[in-house]
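Tokens in:
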């Protein structure tokens, strides 16, 4: 029996509410247990670098994919067909390269220079005694994470309003209160262990839903025939659903999502928290299996929704395709669990973003410029207050129900990718990178991403190219030119680089 048959709306809602409440209570319980293990800022922000392969890999991917994997990507595939698959392909390639090129090197380098945040790593890496790097980095982290966290709250709002018909604002507040509560209490331990649970739930849910839909429609051949009957172009990645060839600028923009991985602070910090650099190879394998199956399944959900659902969803409601399919296919209890996967996606990303933002403000602004001698107790209080403050602003951004999850994520993803992606690669691979080069790259990437997007909204044309591409390229050029023609980094900095490079070779 599906959610639509044999049960009253009230009874259906009550069943799902009970499941949601039980799930939220479990997340809070994990947060409270983590609270007991959190005694200082390194514990709060990095878990004391004691996290194993499974926790790190699933936490990284769960915090990465967020509500957009269960709502944004299926919605894009529902509207545009297999054209959305280019985004999935770009993200898959980017995931692999990030784990392969960055993970081990960043883990070893941050430990060598005693850094627990990305801004602190950059500041220590370049011996920036003036803390300019940390302050500039913190500012951009705050800007883009406000938008990113808002996207997570939008996902939660759409979930509750679609399933229960409750007020969108009330839904936002419910999600925010729970996420803030366990992030406030347990920090990195809580975030990573809740992300482990949430990552498993997200994987199971997104893989089973399209499989169940295909079975109910009579198998693979019958399903393909039904999709082609609706629109033969749905399954062609080179043709739009309108029958025109997909523009090269669209393909490049979609694949360019992969560039974003190199600069996402909430993903990079997972690499810093792993217990042993030798564990990263195993973590990479786990992460890649998760990503390949999840993104493929998410794309299929959108394609299948076109023929499985009787109603025609508009562009604004296309992101509810996963929710509606779950409610149509499964009995109430299973549906409730699979809908809780959206909560998992929302919370696994929002908690990570809140924590990284709090760490940047606390360690890289408050401690660096305002209270250098602040105690751990004081710093942890500031970080927890920051979590609350950022949440409030993100909720205000998310209050507009017309916001799309994918649109907000697209904006923040490009901002981080262009701002931090090039400098992270230069910091790990180019010995001659200078402090001024790092500053130039961060500022250039961040500003280009913001300006280019606004130009695209106004003029289109070449400016419709995803802003991460020009932002990433111009940031890299700025880093190289300023480093090459400016003051060379000190011998101490270059010696440390060689020391870490040798460490990477030996593990």
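Residues out:
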């Amino acid at each position: 029996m599906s959610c639509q048959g044999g049960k009253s709306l009230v009874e259906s809602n009550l069943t799902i509410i009970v499941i949601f409440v039980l799930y939220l209570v479990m997340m809070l319980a994990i947060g409270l247990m983590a609270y007991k293990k959190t005694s200082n800022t390194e514990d709060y922000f990095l878990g004391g670098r004691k996290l194993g392969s499974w926790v790190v890999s699933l936490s990284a991917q769960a915090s990465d994919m967020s509500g957009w994997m269960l709502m944004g990507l299926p919605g894009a595939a529902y509207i545009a067909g297999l054209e959305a698959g280019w985004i999935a392909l770009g993200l898959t390639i980017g995931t692999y390269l990030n784990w392969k090129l960055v993970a081990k090197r960043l883990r070893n380098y941050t430990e060598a220079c005693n850094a627990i945040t990305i801004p602190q790593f950059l500041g220590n890496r370049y011996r920036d005694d003036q803390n300019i790097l940390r302050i500039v980095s913190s500012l951009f982290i705050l800007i883009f994470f406000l938008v990113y966290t808002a996207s997570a709250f939008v996902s939660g709002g759409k979930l509750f309003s679609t399933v229960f018909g409750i007020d969108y604002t009330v839904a936002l507040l419910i999600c925010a209160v729970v996420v803030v509560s366990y992030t406030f209490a347990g920090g990195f331990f809580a975030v990573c262990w809740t992300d482990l649970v949430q990552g498993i739930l997200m994987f199971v849910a997104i893989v089973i839903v399209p499989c169940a839909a295909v079975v109910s429609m009579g198998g693979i051949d019958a399903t393909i025939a039904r999709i082609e009957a609706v629109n033969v172009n749905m399954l062609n990645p080179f043709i739009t659903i309108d029958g025109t060839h997909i523009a090269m600028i669209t393909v490049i923009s979609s694949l360019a999502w992969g560039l974003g991985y190199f600069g996402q602070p909430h993903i990079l910090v997972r690499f810093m928290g792993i217990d042993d650099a030798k564990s990263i190879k195993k973590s990479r394998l786990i992460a890649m299996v998760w990503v390949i199956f999840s993104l493929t399944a998410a794309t299929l959900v959108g394609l299948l929704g076109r023929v499985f659902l009787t109603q025609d969803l508009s562009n604004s409601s296309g992101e509810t395709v996963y929710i509606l399919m779950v409610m149509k296919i499964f009995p109430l209890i299973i549906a409730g669990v699979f809908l809780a996967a959206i909560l998992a996606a929302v919370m696994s990303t929002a908690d990570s973003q809140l924590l990284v933002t709090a760490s940047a403000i606390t360690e890289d602004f408050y401690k660096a410029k305002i209270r250098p001698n602040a105690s751990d107790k004081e710093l942890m209080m500031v970080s927890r207050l920051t979590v609350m403050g950022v949440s409030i602003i993100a909720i205000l951004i998310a209050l507009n129900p017309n916001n799309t999850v994918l649109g907000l994520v697209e904006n923040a993803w490009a901002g981080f990718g262009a701002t931090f992606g090039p400098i992270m690669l230069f910091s790990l691979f180019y010995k001659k990178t200078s402090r001024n080069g790092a500053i130039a790259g961060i500022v250039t990437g961040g500003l280009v991403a913001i300006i280019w997007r606004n130009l695209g909204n106004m003029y289109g044309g070449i400016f419709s190219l995803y802003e991460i591409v020009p932002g990433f390229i111009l940031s890299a050029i700025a880093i190289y030119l300023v480093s090459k023609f400016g003051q060379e980094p000190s011998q101490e900095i270059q010696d440390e680089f060689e020391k870490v490079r040798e460490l990477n070779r030996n593990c």
